Amino acid sequence: MARRPQPMQRSTGTAAAPARSGASPRPAATAAENYSGALGVLVTLIGLMCFALPTFIVFFGGMVPSWVAFIVDDRRSPYRLNVIAACNLAGVVPYLALLWSQGHSLAYAMQLLSGVYAWATMFMGAVAGFAILWVGPHLAAIFYNMDAVKQRQSLDVMRRALIEEWGPDVLPPPEKRVPDKKPATATVGKGAGEQKATSPTEDAAVKEAR
Predict the structure, then answer these.
(1) CA of residue 74 relative to chain centroid, distance
(2) How far is 150 from 28, CA to CA, in rounded Å?
(3) Which of 74 and 195 is assigned the larger pLDDT?
(4) What is the average per-residue pLDDT within 55-84?
């Protein structure tokens, strides 16, 4: 005897939606990178203090601007800190090499740090890093502006060539044209024959085509 098929039960519940994490992973990754870098520097300093005290004294004293930049900078941008620390280290390395070549003694390390020129050289390296961070964006803006001007000139030449080849009909309607830096707002004529004046560049190109 065949069994009577049982009616299918409808599922009233809905599938659980996957949990969405509200926090963005990028800031967490950046913070982890900063903390890992700080931990690496701390371990290096502890190792130098234990096994190479003269090097630690000169290195720690000369890199004071980098420590201050790391503490004061609220953004904790790794690029800013890398530039400042690299330039600061460039001013410290010559005195580290001088220390290593003169026997690597604690007395000579203190003698190096007692000189005004040593502090000036090491701190001027950090100042050079700050100068690069300040001047760099301005130089980049100047180069980008020059590149934009060259591209505009080349596009203007291409537009003139198109107008000379195909005539002024290739130009868009006056109401759809992109104005120049100083668009002409004057009108020509009155009443039904009123027309907006085109830009000087387009007028010159149209005259040459005619």
Answers:
(1) 17
(2) 42
(3) 74
(4) 85
Output the DSSP codes for 164-200.
Answer: HHH-GGGSPPGGGSPP-SS----EESSGGG-EEPPPH
Burial of 52 (0-12, 13-18, 19+ CB in 10 A): middle
State the pLDDT confidence band at 207, using cuts at 50, 70 and 90. Answer: low
pLDDT band at 205 (very low <50, low <70, confident <90, very high): low
Distance CA 188, CA 191 (A): 10
pLDDT the model gives residue 188:
44
Structure tokens at 25: 């992973």
- Taking the C-alpha atoms of residue 6 and residue 92, their distance in angstroms, rounded to an integer, is 85
* End-to-end CA, the chain: 99
C-alpha 11, offset from chain centre: 54
Determine the residue type at 28: A
Lowest mean pLDDT, pick from 38-42, 64-68, 87-91, 205-209: 205-209
Using 50, 70 and 90 to split pLDDT, how confident is the model at 104?
confident
CA 146 to chain centre: 19
Query: Which stretches within the chain are classed as H helix?
Result: 25-51, 53-62, 64-72, 78-101, 106-113, 116-166, 200-209
Phi/psi class of residue 167: alpha, beta or left (left: φ > 0; alpha: ψ in -120 to 50)? left
Cα distance between residue 151 and residue 49, in whole Å: 57
Name the amino acid, one letter, at 44: T
Q: Are 113 and 58 in contact (CB under 8 A)?
A: yes
